[in-house]
Design a protein that fits this description.
mainly alpha, globular, 136 residues, 7 helices
């Protein structure tokens, strides 16, 4: 199970002969490359090609050749973006949900540095001072 199985439930619409690379490991490799700073199809291709042996070991695959940027493009065009978004949102919600009885407060850097307006500081201070919401 890669990335907590976030991509394992996605429906693969590719024809059988077009499945040189499995959906879950390829999506994970693409996401990993983007997290590492890849911002184009060609840099995704280079990232995967340079780390192919390590990625194969991580994903339990035995692909001999990395996909080209054209193959990556064709693959991404066939992925249902709505289904992918739902899967990622569901995964993120499972990872970031507060334990029962606890809440989290998100404060931006301005509120923490004191450079935000007084109203913003007061709102953050008021929420933070409420009993039961502070970290123990």
């Amino acid at each position: 199970m890669i990335f907590g199985g976030v991509f394992s439930e996605l429906h693969d619409v590719r024809r059988e002969q077009g499945k040189r690379y499995a959906l879950e490991p390829l999506l994970c490799a693409i996401v990993t490359s983007m997290l590492a700073g890849a911002n184009s199809l060609r840099t995704i291709e280079v990232f995967i090609a340079e780390r192919l042996a390590r990625l194969n070991g991580l994903f339990g695959t035995n692909g001999g050749k990395a996909p080209s940027w054209v193959g990556i493009r064709k693959f991404l065009l066939q992925v249902d973006e709505h289904e992918l978004e739902c899967a990622v949102r569901h995964f993120a919600q499972r990872q970031a949900s507060a334990p029962p009885g606890r809440q989290f407060i998100a404060l931006d850097g301005k509120a923490l540095r004191g450079s935000a307006s007084r109203l913003d500081d007061l709102a953050a201070w008021h929420i933070e001072e409420r009993p039961g919401l502070t970290a123990s």
